[in-house]
């Protein structure tokens, strides 16, 4: 009973301790990225001669602000969940009326005001203003990652094997733990991803390797095994597998067996067996697929797991470490390499998001396709705690996702406005205000429903972790 109370108190303390940090990081991150988005709209509007009435960081009542020479009110408001830009003259060109706040009535725009109004610009200029928001997010992602990779470098995993799949093609070919991959098909290998990407895309192929073992260079040839399965999130996967692995850590709850002993749903037993066999070659089974365990030969160093013997931290640590988790590796890239890496990251984000949405709609996974505020806050906070480098990476990716989501053809988003403007460009007539109003209401309900579902789903997951 006392043990349960202690664990419960620690959980409440951890939540209380992290709450303000999570909230602060999430608010700052979301507000910053949305400000980038709105600044794109602002710059495009000013470029095409459209007046901007207000640029607000946050919503609701203004805390402070000032007016610039162009008449734009720059302000910070009380509700720090993003921001907005209010463009002048966003009305029906056939009925150019605005609300006169001073006289509390509707009035027609003057000729001078019409010159600065959004509604009088060409359809392509208005299209550019709308698209400029997502474009700003895309450019921010590219510029930040490009500068990061060409100055500090890209974080990477050294091409040194520390685990081997039992009965895998690499195991049969004679690879051993501790081997450092130097070359693959005569091409120099600098990081693990150089091997991983090629073999993942080449099931059934054979590759020649040069590896460094105990100070000597040797050559080995191994086939890439073809894998086809449903992963733990319900996604269909088809790719190549060598069996050569570079683990950073293992999550105890995902370890299915240790030296043949079943540890399914028993992380404490898994930890006990592993701690009894530190610095020895053991077999560890883990599950990446829906219905199959993968067993690896691995040696778990004692020097990285001494904290597990400290009873004060015993309940907190859920990982077994195979390398020094605090040691980071960075590889400075050339401009061309940076372009390629950014393209690879962005295309992967889009592809994985699309696959997850598809299996979620089909009911094949319990994994939420859309993360709500709790999940987003958790991701930002974890990244911030991991260090400035990881935080910059995730905020860059988040910026891209904000831009991408805004291009979806949902009426309330930029993508919906773009659809209306494209219709106007093709037909020569704007979509009627009534149809736009109805579409915006439908879009608002749809987007609101998605966000409500996402947030409730996140809260349920968070609460279940406390049980």
Could you explain the architecture of this structure?
The protein has helices at 2-47, 111-115, 123-151, 169-173, 192-200, 267-275, 335-361, 373-386, 388-406, 414-427, 433-464; strands spanning 52-67, 73-87, 97-100, 105-108, 154-155, 163-165, 180-184, 187-188, 206-213, 216-223, 225-230, 236-241, 244-245, 249-251, 255-258, 261-262, 281-287, 293-299, 319-321, 330-331. The protein is 45% helix and 23% strand. A hairpin with a 5-residue loop joins strand 1 (52-67) and strand 2. By secondary structure, the protein is of the alpha+beta class. The strands form seven sheets. Strands 13-6-18-17-15-16 form a six-stranded antiparallel β-sheet. A four-stranded antiparallel β-sheet has the order 8-7-9-10. Strands 1-2 form a two-stranded antiparallel ribbon. The protein has eleven helices and 20 strands.
């Amino acid at each position: 009973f006392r043990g349960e109370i202690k664990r419960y108190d620690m959980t409440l303390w951890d939540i209380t301790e992290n709450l303000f940090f999570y909230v602060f990081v999430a608010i700052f991150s979301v507000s910053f990225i949305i400000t980038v988005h709105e600044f794109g709209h602002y710059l495009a509007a000013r470029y095409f001669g459209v007046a901007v009435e207000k640029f607000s960081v946050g919503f609701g009542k203004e805390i402070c602000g000032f007016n610039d020479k162009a008449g734009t009110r720059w302000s910070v408001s009380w509700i720090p969940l993003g921001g907005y830009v209010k463009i002048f003259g966003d009305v029906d060109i056939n009925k150019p009326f605005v609300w006169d706040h001073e006289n509390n009535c509707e009035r027609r725009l003057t000729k001078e005001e019409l010159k600065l109004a959004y509604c009088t610009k060409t359809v392509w200029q208005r299209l550019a203003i709308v698209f400029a928001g997502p474009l700003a997010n895309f450019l921010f992602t590219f510029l930040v990652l490009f500068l990061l990779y060409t100055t500090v470098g890209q974080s990477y995993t050294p091409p040194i094997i520390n685990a081997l799949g039992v009965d895998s093609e690499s195991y049969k070919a004679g690879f051993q733990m501790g081997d450092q991959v130097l070359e693959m098909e005569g091409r120099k290998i600098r990081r693990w991803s150089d091997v991983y990407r090629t073999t993942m895309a080449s099931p059934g192929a054979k590759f020649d390797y040069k590896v460094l073992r105990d100070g000597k260079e040797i050559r080995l040839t191994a086939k890439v095994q073809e894998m086809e399965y449903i992963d733990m999130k319900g996604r269909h996967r088809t790719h190549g597998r060598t069996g050569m692995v570079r683990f950073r850590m293992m999550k105890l709850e995902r370890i299915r067996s240790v030296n043949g002993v079943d540890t399914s749903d028993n992380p404490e037993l898994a930890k006990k067996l592993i701690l009894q066999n530190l610095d020895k070659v053991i077999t560890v089974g883990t599950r990446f697929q829906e219905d199959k365990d993968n067993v690896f030969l691995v040696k778990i160093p004692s020097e990285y797991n001494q904290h597990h013997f400290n009873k004060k931290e015993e309940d907190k640590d859920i990982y077994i470490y195979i390398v020094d988790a605090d040691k980071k590796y960075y590889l400075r890239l050339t401009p061309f390499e940076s372009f390629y890496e950014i393209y690879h990251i962005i295309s992967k984000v889009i592809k994985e998001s699309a696959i997850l949405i598809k299996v979620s709609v089909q009911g094949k996974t319990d994994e939420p396709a859309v993360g709500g505020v709790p999940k987003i806050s958790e991701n930002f906070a974890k990244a911030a705690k991991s260090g400035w480098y990881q935080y910059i990476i995730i905020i860059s990716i988040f910026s891209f996702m904000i831009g991408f989501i805004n291009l979806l053809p949902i009426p309330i988003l930029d993508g919906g406005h773009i659809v209306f403007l494209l219709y106007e460009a093709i037909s020569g007539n704007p979509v009627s205000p009534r149809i736009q109003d109805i579409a915006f209401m439908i879009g608002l309900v749809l987007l609101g429903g998605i966000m409500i579902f996402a947030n409730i789903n996140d809260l349920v997951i968070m609460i279940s972790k406390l049980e």
